[in-house]
């Protein structure tokens, strides 16, 4: 990896582990094994580097989610696959956790990729659910926009519960709960 | 308010606004209008003061939630009242946000009240839902433990979505979504 790449990857790790406020330029330089002069040669400063890191993480998250959203199967199959995908639960969501960082939320440039990623997830999930409703897989009473927001919220909140408990159990329970609730909305097959 | 009280209240505000890592002893002293010597006379340090602040916030949150959980009405009425209660959505949950603070999660004494509060919420909601099931208000397929975790996760995740969007809309949608899903589990009245 070249120097700029090492800096971005180190920043991604530190943002996930320690948040933005808790990550110093010095810590980034140490993890990347890069001197201060070299860091400021490649990036204007911590916000610039953090923006590159957050964008990279957001792109990867979208690509992974899109694999599940555009897979074959019913809407519920695809939402289930998305919810049950293996995750590093105790580390939390590298994008969602940034919402608790006042310095990220207070900087429109840094907040933008966080906002866009979570909005995109809700939008794509709403499309998948709307498709399921149109195909007659899901009850017509189901509101795709609202349930999409619920699904993304359950994931983000599940991480919060898991971190508090230092256990994946409440995360798994929250996912099982929403899948159980969703199951009651699956239309009976027309025989 | 006496000095110790002013210090605890200032710490509560700062923890909510800036998190633990982002709150310095100096900032607490300034907000409380208290000198450094006086602060260390009342509290051993920032962790000690933060513990008092987190405990106070946790107690208040439980008392407020318990009002809804023990109110009259069906289980769904009570869960609905809890979910729709007025909240300072864009500020987030003063307890949940601490889970994103590695210094809080890394200190067993500080993590304990966060863990206990969220576990208590899940437990009480599971009791309310189990009661609704026993009374025949809810379908027997509904898993009270799992749905309780879902409800708490939707709230915590709703805050995350609202902060990212700088709007209460996704929070309100996530709540509407889970209430819509729950509605399909209400048993038909026996006529």
TrEMBL record, chains A, B:
Is the DNA-binding keyword given for this protein?
A: yes
- Keywords noted in UniProt: DNA-binding, Transcription, Transcription regulation
UniProt DNA-binding region: 24-43
Top-rank taxon of the source lineage equals Bacteria
Question: Which Gene Ontology molecular-function terms are recorded?
Answer: DNA binding
HTH tetR-type domain location is 1-61
Q: Does the keyword DNA-binding apply?
A: yes
Stored SUPFAM superfamilies:
Homeodomain-like (SSF46689), Tetracyclin repressor-like, C-terminal domain (SSF48498)
What the entry lists under InterPro entries is as follows: Homeodomain-like_sf, HTH_TetR, Tet_transcr_reg_TetR-rel_C_sf, TetR_C
In Swiss-Prot or TrEMBL terms, this protein is called TetR family transcriptional regulator
Q: What is the scientific name of the source organism?
A: Streptomyces bungoensis
């Amino acid at each position: 990896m070249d120097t700029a790449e090492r800096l971005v990857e180190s920043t991604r790790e530190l943002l996930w582990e320690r948040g933005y406020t808790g990550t110093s330029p010095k810590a980034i330089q140490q993890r990347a094994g890069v001197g201060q002069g070299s860091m400021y040669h490649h990036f204007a400063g911590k916000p610039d580097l953090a923006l590159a890191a957050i964008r990279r993480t957001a792109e990867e998250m979208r690509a992974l989610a899109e694999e599940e959203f555009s897979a074959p199967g019913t809407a519920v199959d695809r939402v289930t696959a998305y919810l049950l995908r293996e995750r590093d639960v105790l580390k939390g969501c590298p994008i969602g956790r940034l919402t608790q960082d006042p310095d990220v939320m207070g900087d429109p440039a840094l907040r933008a990729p966080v906002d866009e990623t979570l909005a995109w997830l809700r939008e794509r999930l709403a499309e998948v659910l709307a498709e399921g409703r149109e195909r007659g897989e899901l009850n017509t009473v189901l509101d795709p926009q609202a349930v999409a927001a619920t699904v993304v919220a359950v994931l983000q909140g599940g991480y919060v519960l898991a971190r508090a408990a230092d256990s994946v159990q409440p995360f798994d329970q929250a996912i099982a709960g929403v899948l159980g609730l969703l199951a009651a909305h699956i239309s009976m097959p027309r025989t």
